[in-house]
């Protein structure tokens, strides 16, 4: 025997949403809501942070360097200093200081009052290169002798000058490094000079005297209190550059 169930009738309104009438009250089916969308800032300067693809086409913000377009960015790059100047390397000053050493009879100390280590490092690498061409790997030895020679000459000069001495270690290292130029030339010339013979020692002596004279004049000129002890300073410089010349001769 079939059983009848008393189900309430379903009424479909004209809007399209079915409704179910329960106890005289009509409940409409819940309409699905739109997914969450983040708020769009009105004045965002970065297109991809504004969540609006169309805003990137109308955005007129310039490059990161500033300005309102590529012209402004190029202008900022033009105002930047050269990379060598930012690193403290001035090729024109290095060349002027090097040329002042080339004349052994008249050394111009004006350029050496502003000390730097770029030129001495270049001369050190050149010296090591010529020694390498001669079959001698002495990178560490030459660098160690430069450091020890600079400290030695710095102590000797300030002890002789006393309270009047104002020579600092940076200036002393710069002068010792630039005056290494005659020894570098000696290292290049020795590649074409016979290994054994008095000629090699005679050429080395000329270059050692050249370096000693240049270093002594610069030391007395760039610092105070050394004029009275020029002979002792010259003796210390002679020992330093004789030591470097022995690396070339033997």
UniProtKB/TrEMBL annotation:
Keywords: Membrane, Transmembrane, Transmembrane helix
InterPro entries attached to this UniProt entry: Yip1/4-like (IPR045231), Yip1_dom (IPR006977)
Major localization listed first in the record, in broad terms: Golgi
Annotated region described as Disordered, given as residue ranges: 22-42
TM ranges: 140-160, 172-193, 199-220, 232-249
Family the UniProt entry places it in: Belongs to the YIP1 family.
Transmembrane helix in keyword set: yes
Entry-linked Pfam families: Yip1
Protein name from the UniProt record: Protein YIP
UniProt membrane topology term: Multi-pass membrane protein
Domain Yip1 stretches: 105-248
Organism this protein belongs to: Salix suchowensis
Intracellular or extracellular location(s): Golgi apparatus membrane; Membrane
């Amino acid at each position: 025997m079939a059983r009848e169930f008393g189900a309430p009738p379903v009424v479909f309104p004209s809007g399209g949403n079915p409704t179910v009438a329960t106890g005289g009250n009509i409940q409409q089916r819940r309409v699905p809501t739109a997914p969450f969308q983040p708020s769009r800032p009105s004045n965002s300067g970065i297109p991809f942070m504004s969540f609006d693809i169309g805003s990137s086409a109308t955005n007129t913000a310039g490059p990161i360097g500033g300005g309102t377009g590529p012209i402004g960015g190029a202008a900022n790059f033009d105002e930047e200093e050269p990379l060598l100047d930012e690193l403290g390397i001035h090729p024109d000053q290095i060349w002027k200081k090097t040329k002042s050493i080339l004349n052994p009879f008249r050394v111009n100390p004006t350029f050496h009052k502003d000390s730097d280590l770029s030129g001495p490092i270049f001369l050190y690498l050149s010296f090591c290169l010529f020694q390498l061409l001669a079959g001698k790997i002495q990178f560490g030895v030459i660098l160690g002798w430069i450091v020890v020679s600079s400290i030695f000459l710095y102590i000797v000069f300030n002890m002789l000058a006393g309270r009047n001495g104002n020579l600092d270690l940076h200036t002393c290292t710069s002068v010792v490094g630039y005056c290494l130029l005659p020894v570098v030339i000696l290292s290049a010339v020795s590649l074409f000079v016979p290994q054994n013979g008095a000629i090699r020692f005679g050429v080395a002596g000329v270059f050692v005297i050249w370096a000693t004279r240049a270093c002594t004049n610069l030391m007395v000129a760039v610092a105070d209190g050394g004029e009275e002890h020029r002979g002792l300073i010259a003796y210390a410089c002679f020992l330093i550059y004789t030591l470097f010349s022995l690396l070339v001769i033997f």
